Amino acid sequence: LWYFGLATVGIFSSFVILIILIWMGMFGEIPSKTQLTSINTQVATEVFSADSVLLGRYYWQERSTVPPEEIGAELKHALVATEDVRFYKHHGIDVRSLFRVLIKGILLQDESAGGGSTITQQLAKNLFPRKSFAILSLPINKIREIIIAWRLENVYNKDEILGLYLNTVPFGDNVYGIKTAADRFFSSAVKNLTTDQAAVLVGMLKATHTYNPRIFPDRSKLRRNVVLAQMEKYSFLTTEEKN
Fold first, then answer.
1. What confidence score (pLDDT) does residue 202 get?
2. Dist CA 123 CA 138 (whole Å)
């Protein structure tokens, strides 16, 4: 039994050392709070005529950003209910989800355990893409995202984090950000999205091609219904509103 305890101590010590090395920047610089206050994402360049008519857009990634105050409650609720129901209760790290993934996903090999990443951690991954570290890629990248998520939560409030996430997330078809997605799929401004439309766009985040409403309307509708059911489950919608 003693050797089992010794192995446990060894694994724990190695994990702590790895965290310290990552925090110190040994596997790449971790952005500071100061750097996180000036996040710049690629946006499309728009060309207008003298009478303010849009003539064209030039881009590597087709993205336009929208301020947090223009993101409606329905869209926020759909995102939180589906991706991170304890978003407003944690500080970037959902400890309960991490333990669920550790026990069910890793120890019990249960594929339904999920990924354990919060919206803030997903934002960290969007802003600072993962790198390859051979067999240590997964733990190093996860720890980096946790550290960055913690710092993001110290810099931005919850609505600002939701805004940053929705402005950076891809929606397929080379569409990036909720403003471009709302216009592409519904010819709508973000603030005018209905609950159903918000649910469709949030549903796409699980698999942007598979649930693309333009290509697969039936699949998109089924996924939208899952999002609406999540909103009802967590009291963001009543049964009457869902139906």
1. 97
2. 17
CA count, 13 A, side-chain hemisphere, 180: 24
List the structure tokens of 22: 């990552």
Amino acid occupying residue 78: A
Task: Please give the backbone phi and psi of residue 58, each rounded to the nearest 5 degrees, phi first.
Answer: -125, 135
List the beta bridge partners of residue 45. 58
Instruction: Collapse the DSSP code of 220 into the 3-class scheme (helix H, G, I; strand E, B; otherwise coil) and give the result.
Output: helix
43-97 pLDDT tens trace = 555 556 677 765 555 544 556 788 889 999 999 999 999 999 999 999 988 887 7
Q: How many CB atoms lie within 10 A of CB 94?
A: 23
Distance CA 182, CA 185 (A): 6
Contacts of 115 (CB under 8 A, 6+ apart): 101
CA dihedral 59, 159, 144, 115 (to 10 degrees): -90
pLDDT per residue as tens digits for the range 104-155:
544 444 444 455 689 999 999 988 888 888 888 888 888 899 999 999 999 9
Q: DSSP letter at 231?
A: H
Q: How far apart are CA 162 and CA 74, in angstroms?
A: 13
Our CA dihedral for 43, 72, 146, 151, rounded to 10 degrees, sits at 80
8 A C-beta contact, residue 32 and residue 23: no
CB burial of 25-46 (b: ≥16 within 10 Å; e: otherwise) equals eebeebbeeeebeeeeeebbee
